[in-house]
Amino acid sequence: MIKIIIFYFFITLTFCQNSPIQIGEKLLFNASFTGINAANASLEVIQKTIIEKQNVYHIKFLAKSTGIINYVFPINDEINLWLNVETLLPVKIHENIKEGKFKKSQTIIFNHKKGYAIINNDSIKIDTTTQSPYSLFYFFRKQNIMDFKNKNITLIQNSKTINLELDIEENENITVPAGQYTCSRISPKRKDKKQFKNKAEMDILLSNDIYKYPIKIWLNLKFGSLILELKKIIN
Fold it and tell me: Quick check: is 13 in a domain?
C-alpha cells in the first residue's frame, strides 16, 4: 500500500512540475511608457472550465494606470481569455479597453476546426492556428520555441487576420524586478512588410525553463515604447 501511495504521489508531482500553467498562477508586471511608470498589470489563471464544448483555461489580463499617467491618460483594460487546455489556442476572447478617450468592447469566438471566427456577430476566415496578440503570451509556454524560428503564424487584429513571421533569439539575459532570467526573444513581423497600426512592433521574452514565464514585453509604438516587466510570480 505504501509503495502505491508513493507511486501516485510521484506521478502527481511530476505532472505538476511539467505543466507550464497552474490554476491560481498570477503574474504581476510594472508597465512604463517611454521611461515613465505608467501602470500596474497582471495575468491570472482563474480556473478551468468549458467553453464551446472545449476544456479551457480562463485567464484574465488587467492593466490600470497609476500616478500622473492616471490623470493625463487613464488606462483601465480588462481582457478575458479562454484558451484550449491542450493547445493553448484561443477559444474565446472578450476585450474591454479603456485608454484615454478610446473605448472598445469586443468578443471573439474562434472555431479553428471549421476555419472561422465570430467578432461581435461578424465572421472572418481563419486558419487552424490563428491567435490573438494576448494569447501569444501563453501559447509558446507549451511549445519548443525554437521549432517556430522563421515560421509563420496568423493573428486577428482590428477584425482582420495578419500573417506574421517569427524572429527568435535564444539565451538573452534579462534583469527585471522579479529577478534575473535567461530568455528566448520572440519578435513577430508582418510577412507583407507593412507596418502595424501606429507603427507598433512587439517583442516577447520568455524564460528558458519549463514554465516559460513572459518576463518582459516590449511594444514599440509611433510615439514611444510601452514596456511590461515581471514584478512578481504568485502561485
Answer: no
Residues 6+ apart with CB under 8 A from 47: 23, 57, 58
Cell 471573439 belongs to residue: 108
- Whether 69 is in a domain gets the answer yes
CATH number at residue 107: 2.40.360
Measured CA to CA in angstroms, residue 101 lies from 37, 70, 73, 154, 226 at distances of: 20, 12, 8, 29, 18
How many residues in the chain?
Answer: 235
Tens of pLDDT, residue by residue over 188-213, are: 887 765 655 544 468 899 999 989 99
Kindly report, residue by residue over 210-229, the tens digit of the pLDDT: 899 999 998 765 556 778 99
* Residues 101-133: tens digit of each pLDDT: 888 899 999 999 999 999 988 999 999 889 988
- Helices (H), ranges, the chain: 2-18, 69-72, 136-139
| Total domains present in the chain | 1
Range of the domain at 93: 21-230
